[in-house]
Request: fold
Amino acid sequence: MRVVMKFGGGAVANGEKIKTVANLIKRFKEEGGTEERKEIVVVTSALSTVTDTLLENANRVATEGKVENAKEFVEELRKKHELAASEAIDNVHVLKEVKSEVKERLAEMEKALTGICFLGELTSRSLDYIGSFGERLAAPILAGTMQSIGIDAVHLTGGDAGIITNEDYGNAQLIWGVEREIKERITPLLGDKIPVVSGFTGQTKKGTITTLGRGGSDYTATIIGTAIDADEIWLWKETEGIMSADPKMIKNARKIPYISYMEAMELSYFGASVLHPRAIEPVMKKKIPIRVKNLFNPEDAGTLIGEEPEKTKKAAKAITLIQNTSIINIAGTGVRSISDVAARIFSVLAAGNVDIIMISQGSSERTISIVIDSSQLERAIGALQSINSGGTVIRDYTSNSNVCAMGVVGAGMAGTPGVAGKVFSALGKKGISVIMISQGSSEFNISFVVKKEDAHKAAQAIHDVFEMGT
Reply:
């Protein structure tokens, strides 16, 4: 059996957890004895919160320009990772090697941060380089922990594993034909060794380090799984699997045992943090199953993600929401067609790297409403102002950050009469006003916007009306 296992930041948060992960891998490899050949690739995230800390401090040193602050930060990281290694690795010789490698990689990072201090500038390329160190420091520690309990493991960066990308720093895309490169680098190691790959990272053809976007370790796992024709890809999380709603918000949220690729994609694009939005795409062509498994209950089957939607009486399976969103309502002047107005709006937003979550259009009034992450609101407004030369494109625009975008997802909604009516009736009974509505032609997702203070009440109402918790 050939399996790719991905472990998130919570799973490798400290030395004790890393040791638990190593023992879990060993137990799976040894199950069934020598009769069943087990081939495993491990993908690791950075230690919990490390990537956020790296990005925050890279921006801080670029602004402040103080080399001593950069050195202090590197020293804090060294202590954190050496402590994790010491807690996880029992073999003295392996521990010495891992600490030496951690020290060497941090020295590289310190040089980069020092350069950023002197320049007072942080490019997207430099930010990718700094941001990659979380995974590049975690992989040697996990591989060393596995070695110390008798598993022949070898650690690789994303680039070492053959993940070659373009130069779209911060959200790099794979170049064409990269699967063959990954297969040629990974497959010869399988069986005798277990490769431990740094998630989230890749490199260009020139060898420059890139990153795949936040949460990109899931994506790394599915890229590799597809390239090596894995039997399954296991994403180990600190949850039961994919849930019908956020269990912190909806008390009777339950695990969804099976979900289709398309449903999972809708959920991930609409804020379900359990999956990276692009993670499903690579596996669809080869129909490789993905399992979202629970670290705290390894024997549980978790959630299986497969090709065909499940036949079920329930029209909707899950409710998800994106908080910290803003809605922008844009009114065209009437001088230009709605198509021209839309083209200009979306062009400048794309150029400004503004990601659009939802779109709704009212042709009669020549209005377009978009929902974006609130952190991008100022950038979006600036982009819109840049196209309004002489007031011939946009008559007016307004924005509102007191909103929450929500999505109801389920393959059973497709072709089922009355689903939208059921959704909005449930909201109406709770006195919740809907600000904006959007639905794609697939009918797998009904999206809408409500006031932020109504979000939890709205989620519970829809979860109940579709009996998602039973």
